[in-house]
Design brief:
Layout lengths: L2 H6 L10 H10 L1 E5 L4 E3 L7 E7 L2 E6 L5 E7 L4 E2 L1 H6 L6 E4 L3 E7 H10 L1 H27 L2 H16 L1 E3 L2 E4 L5 H8 L3 H13 L3 E4 L2 E4 L2 H8 L1
Antiparallel strand pairs: 1-8, 2-7, 3-6, 3-8, 4-5, 4-7, 9-10, 10-12, 11-12
């Protein structure tokens, strides 16, 4: 198999497919590069493709009624987006922007729908991933509506840790924490609150900060405290 096919095996919705199916998918789509801060797709645009992140990182955001950016999530390598508009044919529900130089694999809507018919395994895997995202969104909505500043920031940190953190002997390390303003837009708070809360966590011995790197020193205890 080519390197793209090998990569696609790590994408959740394609990981259970036979090699020949993955090879077909790799030949169905196209690759495109986006520079940092480039908009990949806009909220309310017509959805015509599914995107898989080969390399890089993107943020999924919406604009509130008062014009503020609200970051719904940050997606990394092997994550996918654009599936909602693909399935229902309606407009995009959010804006996606490259947080760093990124390479994406793009499958057009008609091609993806044909793949769903030919390989039902993709539909089952897609339902599983959508359910997982819905549960995560429910948890975040609850946290942001009911918790204080520490709880809101902790919820966002835990979300990032679950997505990209590396765990070893109970310690979870986030190699590159998003910028504090992006964290603030995820938590529905201010950059100053993010800075203050992170240092509070550090003073309590819950986390260690080293540049853009963050370590949760006892992941289970941290999660138990704030979930």
């Amino acid at each position: 198999m080519n390197s793209l096919s090998e990569f696609l095996l790590y994408v959740p919705i394609f990981s259970d497919l036979p090699s020949e199916a993955v090879e077909k998918i790799s030949n169905t789509g196209s690759r495109k590069f986006y520079k940092k801060d480039n908009v990949v797709l806009m909220e309310d645009d017509t959805g015509s493709a599914l995107f898989v992140i080969i390399d890089g990182k993107v943020k999924v955001s919406r604009t509130s009624n008062d014009g503020k950016e609200v970051i719904l999530t940050i997606l990394n390598e092997s994550d996918f987006f654009g599936e909602m508009a693909i399935l229902d044919g309606l407009q995009r529900s959010a804006t996606v922007t490259a947080l760093e130089d990124s390479e994406l694999f793009i499958i057009q809507r008609n091609d993806f729908l044909d793949l769903l018919k030919e390989y039902p395994e993709i539909s089952i895997a897609l339902l599983y991933e959508l359910t997982k995202r819905l549960r995560a969104a429910d948890m975040k909505i609850k946290a942001l509506s009911l918790k204080d500043a520490e709880g809101k920031v902790a919820t966002v940190i835990l979300q990032i840790a679950d997505d990209v953190g590396m765990i070893k002997k109970g310690v979870v390390e986030i190699e590159k924490l998003p910028l504090q303003q992006d964290l603030a837009n995820m938590a529905g708070t201010s950059r100053e609150t993010i800075s203050r809360t992170l240092h509070t966590f550090a003073k309590k011995g819950m986390v260690e900060l080293e540049g853009s790197k963050l370590r949760i020193l006892d992941y289970e205890k941290f999660k138990e405290t704030y979930v």
